[in-house]
Amino acid sequence: MSEMLAHLSLGFGVALTLKNVALCFVGCLVGTLIGVLPGVGPVATIAMLLPITFGLDPVGALIMLAGIYYGAQYGGSTTAILVNIPGEATAVVTTLDGHQMAKQGRAGVALGTAAIGSFVAGCAATLIIAALGAPLTRLALLFGPAEYFSLMVMGLCFAVVLARGSILKAFCMIMLGLLLSTVGTDLETGQERMTFGFPPLSDGIDFAVLAMGVFGFAEVLRNLENPEARDVVKSKIGRLLPDWNDLKQSAAPCLRGTLIGGTLGILPGNGAVLGPFASYTLEKKIAKDPSRFGKGAIEGVAGPESANNAGAQTAFIPLLTLGIPPNAVMALMVGAMTIHGIIPGPQVMTKNPDLFWGMIASMWIGNLMLLIINLPLVGVWVKLLQVPYRLMFPAILIFCSIGIYSVNNQPVDVAFTALFGLFGYLLIKLGFEPAPMLLGFVLGKLMEEKLRQALIISRGSFMTFIERPISAGLLLVAVAILVIALLPSMSKKRDEVFTE
Amino acid sequence: MSLNKIEAAQGWRVRSTQDLAAGLFMIALAGLALFLSRDLSTGTLRQIGPGMLPKAFAVICAGLGALLAFNSLRYNGEKLSGWSWRGVIFVLGAAVVFGLTIRGFEIGPLKVPQLGMLVSGPLVVIISGLAATDVKIKELLIFAAAMTIGCALLFKYALGLPIPLAPWLLGI
User: Fold this and answer.
1) How many angstroms separate the CA atoms of B76 and B91, rounded?
2) What residues does each domain of chain B span?
3) Is the CB of residue B124 less than 8 Å away from at least one CB of chain A?
4) What are the backbone dihedrals phi and psi of residue A207, each rounded to the nearest 5 degrees, phi first?
5) Residue A199 has what DSSP assignment?
6) Which pLDDT does position B62 carry in this prediction?
7) pLDDT of residue B2
């Protein structure tokens, strides 16, 4: 306990410098600014804003990125409530009751509840991370290559099961991501692999190029194709602060949501996406009058929004302690950290404690900022939502282009990104959901390295993965989750969850 | 998704062009990967060579693709929908133009000087803007100028990134 407090005070010492608070503030602000745009989810937002952190020192850059992440998350909820367009899967549930509340002239209360719920969840999640960070890191140091490999296999299995749409197609995307990760120079022999003899490819496919092509450009193409019916709320926003009655109604759902979301978020493999669904279902089940749900019940906003934010934050745990990103957003964070010369993993906490704890402390500050900046700025977001798409996407494009160019100062990267944009558009057309691919791509290199190490240690015997108890346990969980998901009764339920 | 007896009795035919195309796409990509990694040694389990994983992943991709294509004959699913070439050409073309002009390039006889962001920026906005079906030229031109100035101030001056603005005119 005292250790945790010492760590937190170190963190706040780092995060509360004027410069870092300012960076956190700017991050939250621009994150929300971009995240609010309909059709721009957190992944695209972070990919787009990555270059503005390049000139900063690593601590400042990560604090700003974390701010951008929360801002993007909250911006997505704002869009869900005001326009009925969820920026990403986790905001889908918010549209159900949030947008109904907005239609009844209670948009302000819905936004305020979402902000307060997110703040409460954020506070709890910060404490969870601070408490679990040290012990999990110690656990991670016990992991050998075999355990790491099995853990990543398990993470990818979770990602397959929790992806939207067909399981088979999600599986395809993971494998395609893994395949793409093998492009480039082989680390051990120095041989070029699948590079077409083209020099820019010998370092492998650049992560920012892939992410921005598939999530920036391809999303634009997808949105251009479906002229959106933007249902911006016409009625008044109303007052922002929930009254006593609203607070009383939303307090318990908020706490339950935090617990559910925070727990699911720790799972490797995008458990965070389940949080809002689980919370909504629970609130509906235990409500005295379930028929109110879907018609603007405040519990239906408070619970899922808290779960959403708690999960978004505890998803940092597998990344910071094990170095394994659980979802596409965290995969982007890995890319960002690597650009700043930090390899995520258990060694971060021991080698750069100020970075680790500073970032955790800045999470809490970021949540507070969201509360402070968003409530007065709601009017601005509403204005922004009225910008027509025909002006929005050229702006996205110039941002992306300058951003990719700035990663390596390589003009050819921009052309590559366009190529991946085409690739991403093709995937979307073929009914693939590209998010799991990004995860596979990021984990691919690490998996190959660990697999090779594990097999060298075991002298070429695959039994090592089953003989070592932790590794065997992880693989067992992976198999179990796949089997359960493929059972006919479960797959039907899964379809229901994702279509609701 | 599920198939009742009557449907099953109708025999084999393409029930989802999207899934069929997706399956064939996976197989084609796997084939390309196998072709490109044909000279890489597989090695042994004890000492994995550079070719082992690419080939293994490619084989799995091909297998999944085959399953997907096979399933498209059994289960009903989405149809392949039309392409919007307008978006593809203008949006991706704009990015390529940006890449080509920002620092200049030379491909054979074709030579473009280093134009910098003050030219490349408006080009991206205008070319990509043409992809919208409800494009308004005047609005787009003003927007392009405003965005370029905003981006120049933000990236060049506020963030200090080394982006050429207009070397041929301003020398920076």
Assistant:
1) 33
2) 5-74, 85-158
3) yes
4) -60, -45
5) G
6) 96
7) 47
Beta carbons of B68 and A169 less than 8 Å apart: yes
Pairwise CB contact (< 8 Å): A405 & B125: no
Whether A55 and B46 lie within 8 Å, measured CB to CB: no
Contacts of B87 in chain A (CB under 8 A): 220-221, 224-225
User: CA neighbours within 13 Å on the CB side: how many for A281?
Assistant: 12
Q: Nearest chain A residue to B26 by CA: give it.
A: A172
Q: Does B53 contact A54 at a Cβ distance shorter than 8 Å?
A: no
Tell me if B92 sits within 8 A of A422, measured CB to CB: yes
Domain count, chain A: 1
Q: How far apart are CA A116 and CA A118, in angstroms?
A: 5
Write the DSSP string, A365-414.
HHHHHHHHHHHHHHHHHHHHHTS-HHHHHHHHHHHHHHHHHHHHT-HHHH
Cβ distance B40 to A193 less than 8 Å, yes or no, reads yes
Domain that holds residue A440: 2-499
The total number of residues shown for chain A amounts to 500
Which residue carries 């949105």 as its tokens? A223
The answer to whether residue A456 neighbours chain B at the CB level (below 8 Å) is yes
Instruction: Please state, in angstroms and rounded to a whole number, the distance separating the CA atoms of residues A294 and A241.
Output: 22
- Summarised one tens digit per residue, pLDDT across range B105-162 is 777 777 777 888 899 999 999 999 999 888 889 999 999 999 999 988 888 887 777 8
- Tell me B131's DSSP state: T
Over the stretch A411-448, which tens digit does the pLDDT of each residue have? 888 999 999 999 999 998 998 988 889 888 988 888 99
Using the Cβ of B132 and the Cβ atoms of chain A, whether some distance falls under 8 Å is answered with yes
Q: Nearest-CA neighbor of A117 among A8, A277, A252?
A: A252
